Structures are given as structure tokens and as C-alpha cells.
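Severity: low
Component: inverse-folding endpoint
Summary: output formatting inconsistent between runs
Steps to reproduce: submit the following C-alpha cells with default settings.
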């Protein structure tokens, strides 16, 4: 069953780009889209909610933000059911809670806060790090955001760790009718690298072993009845380098993230941290335990 989509907006250009992407995704999946604006009036604006005729500037602004986003979504995809909500709550808390209900959350790469110069906004980073359901951070150029490259990329690690991410990427590629590229990286230990590599030397062994690991990781998820064409890409080097390179010609980059129970810190890891800050296309973070 496809998950419902929710997109958080704050009036920034980045959040409106997220609305554009989310309504397109909702149309592909055939699911409704809910647009939310977490105003957190009492905490951040110093305004008390007003239900009378004289509404506070914060309420007026919130209505403007949500109204603009809803109109934009309905104009882009008239067949998608679009609903909206304004909640006086911290935005990260709201979106993480919504994710706990099995909803895929879509956010922009940056917001309208004081730290807009950051590569990734604090709300987007917090939601991606803690949400129990998939989170999609919309970033990258227009061609990447508009499925102009006809390819979904998924980062694949060891067998038994990547199934949720691969399954998500496979559905995304199928919905778009595009190729799925599975990227797996490996690094040869320094002591195993010969001074003058020749065919049959240790580096070939590591490449062959990595190809086998990728095949094993894909075996249980990519079955023969899928209509998606899968390209396997095994490359020597750092995983973050391989994924960033692949993102340049991708419509979506999918990575997995561990969610250990009881762990309160940032649950992303250095590779996911890097791609969320620097990828050239939207990034989907798919959690697994």
C-alpha cells in the first residue's frame, strides 16, 4: 500500500519547491496530499491564538502561507486531493509525529529561519534524522526535481540492511517508469593494493566480491516479475563520493538510515549527512531498524 504524503511549508521558495515535487509524487502514487504549516505561534511569535474578528498578524501570515501552497498544488495537479492544516506547534515535532502515523514526509532543503545560509535547514535535518517513516528532502536543479533524467538511484550496503531502501526506490522507479540504478561502493585495504596492479591481482578480487555483495543485497527485493530495469553500479571509493556523483543525473536518490530503539541522537550517519547537504537531486531517507 502506498503511503499518504504530507508536505511542510513555511512560505520559503524551498518549501514551495517541495510542494511542487510532492503534488507530482502524489499524482504518480494516486494518493492524497496534505499540506501543513506549523506556526508555533505561542513559542516563537509571541502571539496568542485569536478566534475573533481581530486576528493576529501571525494568523494572517499562516493563512497566507497555507493558502498560497494549496492554490499552487491544485493548479499543478487538479486531480490530486489536497487538504491543509495550520498547527501551532514546532515544525520538526509535528512532522516527526505525522511520520509516526505511516506518512511519507516531504520538506524543502532550507527554511525561512535565521540560518538560511545553511546547506540544509535545521527542521529538514531534524525530521530526516528522527522520522520513523520515509522523509524526502527536495533539493537540486529543476531538471532533477522534474524527473528529467529518467533514473532513480539507490545506495546499497550490506545484504540484510538495504531492503527497505531498495523496495522504496523500486516503487519510485516503477511509478515513474524509469531505470533504477543500484550503487554499491567498496574500498581496497591499503596493504592489499599492489605497486603495479595486473589482472587477477587483489583489487580484482575486491571488485568481484563487491559485485557479489550487491547481487545478494538485491536478490530478495528485486524479483523477476518487476517491470523496472535495474542497473548495477559497483565502484571503488567512498560511498558518499559515489552517491553524490550519481545524484548529478538522478531524479531521486534513496538511502537507508538506521533507527535504533531508544537512541535520541542524530540517526543519519556521515554518508547520509553528506548527501542531504550536497546531493544534486531530491533525497529520500528510508529508515530501518
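Observed output (run 2 of 3):
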Amino acid at each position: 500500500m502506498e503511503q499518504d504524503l504530507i508536505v511542510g511549508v513555511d512560505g520559503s521558495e524551498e518549501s514551495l519547491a517541495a510542494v511542487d515535487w510532492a503534488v507530482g509524487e502524489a499524482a504518480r502514487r494516486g494518493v492524497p496530499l496534505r499540506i501543513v504549516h506549523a506556526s508555533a505561534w505561542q513559542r516563537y511569535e509571541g502571539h496568542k491564538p485569536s478566534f475573533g474578528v481581530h486576528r493576529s498578524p501571525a494568523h494572517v501570515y499562516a493563512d497566507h502561507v497555507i493558502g498560497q501552497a494549496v492554490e499552487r498544488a491544485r493548479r499543478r495537479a487538479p486531480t490530486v486531493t489536497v487538504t491543509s492544516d495550520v498547527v501551532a506547534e514546532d515544525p520538526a515535532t509535528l512532522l516527526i509525529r505525522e511520520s509516526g502515523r505511516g506518512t511519507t514526509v516531504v520538506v524543502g532543503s532550507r527554511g525561512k529561519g535565521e540560518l538560511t545560509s545553511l546547506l540544509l535547514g535545521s527542521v529538514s535535518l531534524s525530521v530526516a534524522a528522527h522520522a520513523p517513516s520515509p522523509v524526502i528532502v527536495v533539493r537540486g536543479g529543476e531538471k532533477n526535481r522534474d524527473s528529467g533524467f529518467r533514473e532513480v538511484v539507490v545506495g546499497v550496503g550490506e545484504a540484510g540492511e538495504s531492503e527497505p531502501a531498495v523496495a522504496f526506490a523500486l516503487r519510485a522507479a516503477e511509478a515513474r517508469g524509469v531505470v533504477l540504478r543500484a550503487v554499491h561502493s567498496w574500498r581496497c585495504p591499503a596493504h592489499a593494493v599492489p605497486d603495479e596492479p595486473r589482472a587477477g591481482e587483489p583489487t580484482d578480487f575486491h571488485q568481484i566480491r563487491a559485485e557479489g555483495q550487491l547481487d545478494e543485497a538485491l536478490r530478495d527485493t528485486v524479483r523477476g516479475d518487476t517491470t523496472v530495469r535495474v542497473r548495477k553500479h559497483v565502484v571503488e571509493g567512498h560511498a558518499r563520493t559515489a552517491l553524490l556523483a550519481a545524484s548529478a543525473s538522478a531524479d531521486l536518490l534513496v538511502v537507508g538510515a538506521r533507527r535504533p530503539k531508544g537512541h535520541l541522537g542524530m540517526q543519519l550517519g556521515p554518508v547520509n549527512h553528506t548527501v542531504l547537504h550536497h546531493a544534486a537531486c531530491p533525497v529520500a531517507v528510508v529508515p530501518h531498524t
